[in-house]
Amino acid sequence: MRKISLGKLALPLYAVIAIIYLLIPIAYTFVFSFNDSVKSNIAWRGFTFDKWLEVCNQQGVCEAFGNSVLIGVISTVIATALGTMIAIALVRYRFKFRSAVSLLLFLPMATPEVVLGAGLASQFLSLGAQKGLVTIIIAHVMFCLSFVVVTVKARVASLDPALEEAGRDLYGSPSQVFWKITFPLLLPGIMAAALLSFALSFDDFIITNFNAGPETTFPKFVYTAAARGIPAEANVVGSAVFLLAIAIVVTLQVRGSRKQKRLLKIK
Amino acid sequence: MAFAAFSGGPAKTHKPMKSGRVALFLLLPGLLYLGLFFLTPLFSLIITSLQVPDPSGEIGRYQYGFAIENYWIVIESYWPHILRSFGYALLATVFALIISYPLAYFIGVKARRWPLLQGLLLTLVIAPFFISFLLRTLAWKQIFSNESWIVTSLQSIGALAQDQYLVGTPFMVIFGLTYAFIPFMTLPLYTTLERLDIRYLEAGADLYATPATTFRKITLPLSMPGIISGTLLTFIPIAGDYVNASRDFLGSTDTAMIGNVVETNYLQINDYPAASALSVLLMLAILVIVTFYVKRSGTDDLL
Predict the structure, then answer these.
(1) Best mutation target, A20, A22, A241, to test chain B (most B CBs within 10 A)
(2) For an engineered disulfide with A148, which of A170, A193, B28, B247 has Cβ 3.0 to 4.6 Å away?
(3) For residues B147 and B180, which has the higher predicted lDDT (pLDDT)?
(4) B78-297 belongs to CATH 1.10.3720.10
């Protein structure tokens, strides 16, 4: 006698439903980027490509998007450099106060965004600093840093020290060993960290809102627009970024699996 | 992308090399940065929370002081918001766990034989990260809007009264919070379940344990690390969130959480001491939770 196995039918079905649930708002945003809306983008008024072709016609969308990209790139470069250095130190070196350092790196990830945002805003307030792009970038580097450390650290830990030893045995100077061996091997981890950092920066709203002053970013544009109805052009930007990100992830995965196959052949 | 942050886990560790100036050179810039822009702001927050109004009476101007009563004032005026935040966060975390666990189990255990399917499912789980979370929340608002077929059909079958709607209710806010943080729960769960040795489950079955007993005695305890980091990664950001509960998104004035109060006080009415006092209270609550976690698992697993 065979019972209907939980794992055979119910679980896959459940997984499919859960995934669909996760994707519904994405599909909705995508579909409504083609809506021939006039002011607010709530009711369906017919299909059009216009919003995609003339995104920048909507006041503020492209400026906000440009700001977000600029902030994302600068914060990512700084956070990735600082974070990679810390990750290497954490895995490769022994030093005092190790658990204090771990805690200091963990806390920003565990602190609610309002607290981070209000804290920095208080600091800028008491220093009398003008809020703007610089203060946003300072804030973004701060919360991206720990995520970079976590991501790169995993890669450093899986690195075989014998490869670097071989470099030293062949009379490579420390900087040669780093740039010719360590860095290329760490590169996938560093790239992943940079992508994560850019994604976090690009999508951040709460911390940005506290430290942006008059400057707008894409999330801030959406938040402000939400009060009076969000234009379809915002959906266009969101959908385009989504498609681009998915393309990057799929390319990286396909490349990774190809590389693995090649390596298996060599073995 | 974000998935990479959780997938690391403690890999095999090599013997750390000698300490020295190199370590200091590598650590110092980043730690200095965190000191300046993470730790000092927390102190700024405490100092601001104790400030007293400027004698000039000008709005938004404060003087240094030691007004510990600021804390009693915010607790007295905002205790419903504080309770609501932790209540919503608790419920949303539990719902996210209930929804995520079977999903993570399927991806991590059942889909193991098909790496391609596993990769595809994981990409789909993190897909929401690639689209602005404000847009996603607005999408739910419109899907459940007062004119939507969901609301009108619920009204026609009598589940909702004619003048009752979904947007603006606690239900909607908790729904939105649960949705937004499911990936943060699913990924750490997946990471631990992926390493689960199936032979333990087979051994359980061989010893005549029912599937339920096997789950309770083997799977659940072995996936505990994932459950703990998942709940931590979900509960904390939810407790501080103010987008879902905002009036322009899924909430109303009746659903305002701590985050909303902090935002209003800080950015709109410029009552910095009250906003800071509330933030400090929120941070203290979170620190208690983190301390509990560190006591249980140590600092090595933090990163």
Answers:
(1) A22
(2) A193
(3) B180
(4) yes
